[in-house]
Amino acid sequence: MKYTEEYQIEFKDCDENRRLKLPALVDLMMQVSEHQLSQGGAGTDDLVKRGLGWVVTQYHFEISDLPKPGDQVILSTEASGYNRFFEYRDFGVSTADGKPLVTVKSQWVMLDLKKRHMVPADTKMMEDWGALLLKKMPRFPRLRARDNYEHIRPYRARYDDLDTNHHVTNSHYFSWFVDMLDRNFLKEHIVTAIDIKFDKEVHYGESINSCMDLVQDDIVTTYHVIEAEDGTVKAVCELSWRKI
After folding, report:
1. Fold (topology level) of 151-243
2. Full-model pTM
3. Distance from the CA of 72 to the CA of which of 94, 175, 209, 213 falls in 20 to 30 A?
4. Which residues have CB under 8 Å from 75's CB, separation 6+?
5. String of DSSP letters for 180-218
6. Where is each Acyl-ACP thioesterase N-terminal hotdog domain found (predicted)?
7. Domain spanning 3-128: CATH 3.10.129.10
């Protein structure tokens, strides 16, 4: 069951190059899914009453272009399937006349907010959304942290970085990734694909290191990891870029 809504891109959503910022893109994805889930009694407020929350574990993005301020876009989302523990959700951003700009596949779990562990998928909820029970898990790229990274920068998880699951919201990781890149690089390149896997939560006040390598072959790729001070991997990400 696909859900769509119209949205006008605002200046606050965009960077100095007038392109939609990656954290803002993810926030819009969360907004449209929250609107759909709330209509079916599975939104944030509904789940918090049950001591539960949605947590993303992996994303795969394909990006042909990023909208600019004033652009009218169509945001879309649908639950594409589930199995015992995972729920799969697709997202899209397209132009007003239907041209795809961004397509996203994602994998989610339901988290017990008190015990901080995942719980089995709610079968009735999935059936109500028309999501299919999957016999095989959809394949996402296998991401692993590299042995060494050339660029490392420390950060601290702030209060404003948290969401209602009481950990750093997934969109903020993209701020940590993008901040590692040179300003001129960001003026001259646009991201075309993103793969990210979230391994561990980042909590309030926690100090982390954002690490990056940039590799320029036929395709420019940046390799990222978010690590705790003791080296525990929190998230691994790969971004592909093209020159404008």
Report:
1. Thiol Ester Dehydrase; Chain A (3.10.129)
2. 0.94
3. 175
4. 4, 5, 6, 7, 28, 29, 31, 32, 91, 92, 93
5. TS-HHHHHHEEEEEEEEEE-S---TT-EEEEEEEEEESS
6. 2-120
7. yes
